[in-house]
Amino acid sequence: MKKLQNQILILGISLLLGGLFLTNCVPHEQRSPEEIAAIQRAKRDSIRKANYNRCLFKMSNADQYKIQENWTAAIRNYKDVIELGCVEDFADPLFKDLAHCYYRNDQPDSAAWAIEEGLIYKPTDLHMLKLMAYYNRGNLDKTLEAWTRINNLYPGNTEYMFELADLYFKAGHYDEQITLLEEILEIEPDNKKAELSIIAAYEAKGVDPIELYAKNFETDKSHPQYAYQYAQRLIDSNNYVKAVTVLEEALKYNASNKNLTEMLAESYVNTGQRDKAVLVYEELAQKNPTDNELFIKISSLYREMGQYQKALQFADKAVEIPPHNGRAMAERGEVYLAIAQANTMNLNLNDKLVYHMAYEDFKEALKQGNGNVRSKINFLENNKLIITGQSDYFLATEANKVGPNEFKPVGEGYAWITRTVKVQ
After folding, report:
1. Using N-to-C axis directions, what is the helix angle for 126-135 and 140-153, rounded to 10°?
2. Would strands 401-403 and 406-407 be described as parallel, antiparallel, or unpaired?
3. pLDDT by residue (tens digit) across 8-56?
């Protein structure tokens, strides 16, 4: 009986072991792709963990050789890390450093290969993508691929968009370049580089861009970008009369568009319509009260039109608004200079007081960093048009005197000026 029990036990164990053996010996073709991938991954992880310390040692050796500029030895150690299966642990900086060593060892193709291998593990690494473009700069297709991937990762970055646009131009992909440049202009409407690049792309295609811009505008006059492109091209070709027509029409649909409005004002100026231009700028200044460039332009136009009181009014506003870079102060100096020149018959103290106001503003503009006023300062000094001391204010009348050593100009052309001059 006991013998029979032993036989039954042995048979059971044999069946169990046989079952286990058969389970582990399932043919590969009977395993699912997921099972195979899991087995392979487990093997790689096992090897990687077992070799981690060796890989760490190899990386350290490679880094030391790189510092010593022993490129061949560094490459050998970096490749050992790859062969030991530790890539996932050291992908960054392994492949960047390996590429650098290959490049310094006059193996540019191998450098490009190393970066592409690295991108398998770090597909969104910006630095590695830029290195892909750099090491493949002799291969236009690969460089295009790198910058396309970068732009897909960082949409709206105009610096990267320009890199890709330039490559499109080199590759003769003018339509793709134009599309990308127009996207840049939607982000930065005043970007002159994008505008000029679009023109160059159309010319490379044998198309006059102004014809296309005109067609686009006529198709949709409410589209601000179409109007801007067409008007800018007209302005670039000095066709200001046509630009006025286009911009007046476009602003019916885009009344608050600052760029189009400024272009219209500029076109009015260049067609001799300063009165219209100044009104456009004044309307803009009301909507943009912190833009001192607008106040400078208004002052300059009124000055050129001989309306000095209005010119001074806007120049006074401009000097109060940042940035204080000397431009507004220089414009106010120009207003006082124009007032004095318009009223000087036989030079007298009243004239010199106003000239001196201009001189003070030019000096302040220079102090604020505007070097363009040096010639004005020299002109006033060399022609003795400034107040220099007792020899000047000794001639002052009671009407000129405001206080001790403080004077104001009087007379028909100056009575409205409230500013005074203090002299030592």
Report:
1. 160
2. antiparallel
3. 334 443 433 444 344 444 454 565 565 545 545 555 555 556 567 888 8
